[in-house]
Amino acid sequence: MKKDDVKVTVEDGILSVSGERKGEKEDHKKKFHRIERSFGTFRRSFTLPEDADSTKVTAEFRDGVLKVHLPTTVRAKSKTIDVKVQ
Questions:
Q1: Is residue 78 part of a domain?
Q2: Percent helix, strand and coil across the chain, each to the nearest 5
């Protein structure tokens, strides 16, 4: 696949990866001629974790491998509060 065949989007906390695969392979031999074609679309969706910063999602496509980077936000740590029971 090529970089232009893949699309990565984030909408309402859902990361979607979609694309289309196109391929053609020809084989010329003395006694036969063969052509194989493969086509297809795909789409995968993932729910982002609560601490993911959806505005800073980046993707990198190199050597046929797609890497998606999801930075997290700094969340305030919760405090434990003692409650008096009367």
A1: no
A2: 5, 55, 35
